[in-house]
Design brief:
- The chain has helices at residues 3-31, 52-60, 68-99, 103-117, 124-134, 140-164, 169-176, 181-192, 194-210, 213-219, 227-231, 242-262, 264-276.
- The mean pLDDT is 81.
- Helix 2 packs across helix 12 (242-262), helix 6 (140-164) runs antiparallel to helix 10 and helix 7 runs antiparallel to helix 8.
- The protein starts with a helix and ends with a helix.
- The chain has a single domain (51-276), classed as MetI-like fold.
- It has 277 residues and is mostly helical.
Length: 277
């Protein structure tokens, strides 16, 4: 590859990255604008950027329910719990659907596929009534159960597709040696599908971390409020404190960026393997 072609490629890569980076730049500029006094133009930073909004957002978000730190803890615990449960439930389900043929397996897989299409908002009233009857509204367990039920079709769909493209030679050899099906799954199969496990964890974790609607409906105003709901407290009935809102959004973005930077290579490997699988 010539130096000229590499330079041309790099220029186009940076141009393609501009639409992706602009929203983050807008959040950063707005969060750094003073709450009073001269502000930036929206895209250009103010002449006197400040970190006061970040400090104020951390101290005052979630007033009346939880502090910002508690909301951050709630979001972290909820995201980790949902991701772990999805992997524990979806991996065996996807493996069974991929390895067992027949009409029953096809019907179950079709049901999971339908679950990808039907929005959770469509059955929210019925779901909320059910949660009220069993006493799970306003609880952390209820929120986790709803997220797992909503995201399980996606996780099963990804696992099933990956398992179907996985050769069975290692599984057959382990079965001949007397390994039970559960040991085959845990010791042989799951280590081979770490890329799709990373993909499932990333996609579902991002959804849970960023979701506002279910968090507001199910745990809004309770000690289990999540981060997006806490940021929403800056929106008043007559005015919105935009610098504080974007400062809170900036705080919420930082943990996701740190996780991505730490696991960037594995995440990219997982996406490539899933697409080719």
């Amino acid at each position: 590859m010539t130096a000229g072609w590499r330079g041309f490629r790099d220029v186009w890569l940076w141009l393609a990255a501009v639409p992706v980076l602009l929203p983050f730049w807008f959040v950063l500029v707005t969060a750094a604008s003073p709450a009073s006094g001269p502000k930036g133009s929206g895209w250009l930073p103010t002449a006197a950027p400040t970190t006061d909004n970040v400090v104020a957002a951390w101290r005052s978000a979630g007033r009346g329910a939880v502090s910002f730190g508690e909301a951050l803890r709630n979001s972290t615990l909820t995201t980790v719990a949902v991701v772990v449960l999805l992997i524990v439930l979806a991996a065996p389900a996807g493996y069974t659907l991929a390895r067992r043929g027949g009409r029953l397996a096809g019907a179950v897989f079709a049901a999971f596929a339908v679950g990808l299409i039907v929005p959770v908002q469509l059955g929210l009233i019925t779901l909320y009534g059910l949660l009220v009857q069993v006493g799970l509204v306003g609880t952390w367990i209820g929120l986790v159960v709803v997220y797992v039920g909503f995201l399980l079709p996606l996780a099963v769909f990804l696992y099933t597709g990956f398992f179907r493209g996985l050769p069975t030679a290692y599984e057959d050899a382990a079965s001949v040696d007397g390994a039970r099906p559960w040991r085959v799954l845990v010791d042989i199969v799951l280590p081979l599908v770490r890329p799709v496990t990373g993909t499932v964890a990333l996609l579902t974790g991002l959804f849970v971390w960023n979701d506002f609607f279910l968090g507001l409906v199910l745990v809004g105003g309770t000690p289990y409020e999540t981060l997006p709901v806490a940021v929403y407290t800056f929106v008043g009935p007559y005015a919105a404190q935009w610098p504080l809102i974007f400062a809170g959004a900036l705080i919420a973005i930082v943990p996701v960026l740190l996780v991505y930077l730490a696991l960037q290579r594995r995440i990219m490997t997982g996406f490539v393997s899933t697409l080719h699988g």
